[in-house]
């Protein structure tokens, strides 16, 4: 426990402590710290991520689970496969734009699941709007960045104060990114039913026990859209970096894909159970560069004790999952990208999915969808492309942002098709896609 940024802060460094407090004592440790800048001034306090644990939050979670449960997400596998194929086609045409293409692809999955908005100008507008909002939101969630979070009465500062102007711009982006796709569905609902998407189907067949459905649905989906895109985007960018730096891993994964999938089709979600090394690559990517290394902060609702240590009310709890990912290991260097650590029967590593999506009652409701998206994107990229460092001996700098969601900073690499035949296959598969 230490004091910083005007708060009592407890950093958890073990998986046991995280599960003991954030899961088993969920009634005490499922609340959020109060946020002046992001929650009040930017208007995000009623979104699922910022919302305090209670009836409203439970209603949001209930809505999310109607389409994002483990069984329910299977209905989106075909859509995710198509989106991954479209990404591959984009990488064939403009490999240098992989940062932008991966972000769009990750956003398309979430936009499709939540709203069912078809490919076209509206979809493009909302994807770009979401990207602009997340750039602002990343700053809003940074601890100690804004003085008003440390001295709350500063929220009454004049409108011309720089942070007030920044909050106003962020608020406008937040509400636009939430309202515009929602209103599009209401006005064009018949065109948004190609998949069993959340908003159109809820509006057409509302649950009988859900009062004030439209408002709750608006806030729940707005939070899912922004949060659901970023972690997938960050993980896939880290994977591409890992392949450029670890050619032997890439070759081994491609050999497995060639043996299981062959050369006349792209991977599908049904192949996953037969691709243990590709699965290990997915796990190792999540471990090697956790997308949310300090987790999303919690707050203690009342005084508590843990293993003899006093935890005062309103303590901010930070689950340091980086400590789990980088725990010392005599056999496997945590700094190295080694998927085989997850296949070692004598010393199996902790599955990062046990901590990457959060804990307990506030575990990410989109964890199963996100896990599927990461897998199919990684499998498709491996099947289609060879990834290597940039030409002329340039090196890849492993530099990352320091926001709550941690991204690689822009880097260059070579992304080239493995063969002419696989390029033609991708073109055909993507051209027949309706996403």
Automatic annotation (TrEMBL):
Keyword Hydrolase among UniProt keywords: no
Residues noted as binding heme in the record, renumbered to the chain: 364
Keywords, ordered alphabetically: Heme, Iron, Membrane, Metal-binding, Monooxygenase, Oxidoreductase, Transmembrane, Transmembrane helix
GO MF terms, alphabetically ordered: heme binding; iron ion binding; monooxygenase activity; oxidoreductase activity, acting on paired donors, with incorporation or reduction of molecular oxygen
Cellular compartment(s): Membrane
Membrane topology type: Single-pass membrane protein
InterPro entries: Cyt_P450, Cyt_P450_CS, Cyt_P450_E_grp-I, Cyt_P450_sf, Cytochrome_P450_fung
First-listed, main subcellular location of the protein, grouped into a coarse class: membrane
Protein origin, superkingdom: Eukaryota
Cofactor(s) needed for function: heme
Keyword Iron included in the entry's annotation: yes
Pathway: Secondary metabolite biosynthesis
Example of a GO cellular component annotation carried by this entry: membrane
Family label: Belongs to the cytochrome P450 family.
Protein name: Cytochrome P450
Record organism: Ceriporiopsis subvermispora (strain B) (White-rot fungus)
């Amino acid at each position: 426990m230490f004091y910083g940024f005007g708060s009592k802060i407890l950093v958890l460094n073990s998986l046991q402590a995280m599960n003991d407090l954030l899961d088993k004592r969920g009634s005490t440790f499922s609340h959020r710290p109060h946020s002046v800048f992001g929650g009040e001034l930017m208007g995000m306090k009623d979104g699922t991520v910022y919302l305090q644990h209670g009836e409203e939050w439970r209603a949001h979670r209930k809505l999310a689970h109607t389409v994002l449960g483990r069984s329910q997400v299977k209905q989106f596998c075909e859509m995710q496969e198509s989106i991954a194929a479209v990404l591959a086609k984009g990488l064939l045409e403009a490999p240098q734009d992989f940062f932008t293409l991966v972000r769009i692809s990750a956003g398309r999955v979430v936009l499709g699941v939540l709203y069912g908005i078809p490919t076209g100008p509206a979809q493009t507008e909302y994807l770009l709007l979401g990207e602009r909002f997340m750039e602002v939101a990343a700053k809003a969630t940074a601890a100690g960045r804004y003085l008003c979070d440390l001295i709350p009465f500063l929220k009454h500062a004049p409108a011309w104060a720089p942070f007030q102007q920044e909050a106003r711009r962020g608020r406008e982006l937040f509400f636009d990114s939430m309202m515009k796709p929602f209103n599009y569905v209401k006005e064009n609902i018949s065109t948004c039913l190609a998949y069993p998407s959340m908003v159109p189907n809820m509006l057409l067949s509302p649950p009988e026990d859900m009062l004030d459905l439209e408002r709750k649905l608006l806030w729940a989906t707005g939070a899912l859209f922004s949060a659901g895109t970023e972690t997938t985007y960050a993980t896939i960018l880290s994977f591409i970096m890992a392949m450029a730096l670890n050619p032997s891993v890439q070759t081994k994964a491609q050999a497995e894909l060639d043996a299981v999938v062959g050369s006349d089709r792209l991977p599908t979600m049904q192949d996953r159970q037969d691709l243990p090394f590709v699965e290990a690559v997915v796990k190792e990517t999540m471990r090697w560069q956790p997308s949310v290394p300090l987790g999303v902060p919690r707050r203690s609702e009342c005084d508590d004790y843990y293993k003899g240590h006093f935890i005062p009310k309103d303590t901010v709890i930070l689950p340091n999952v980086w400590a789990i990912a980088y725990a010392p290991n005599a056999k496997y260097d945590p700094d190295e990208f080694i998927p085989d650590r997850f296949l070692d029967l004598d010393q199996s590593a902790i599955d990062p999915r046990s901590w990457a999506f959060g804990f307990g009652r506030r575990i990410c409701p989109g964890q199963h969808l996100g896990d599927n998206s990461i897998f199919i994107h990684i499998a498709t990229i491996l099947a289609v492309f060879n990834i290597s460092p940039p030409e002329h001996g340039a090196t890849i700098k492993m530099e990352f942002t320091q926001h709550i969601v941690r991204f690689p900073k822009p880097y260059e690499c070579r992304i080239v098709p493995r063969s002419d035949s696989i390029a033609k296959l991708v073109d055909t598969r993507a051209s027949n896609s309706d996403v």
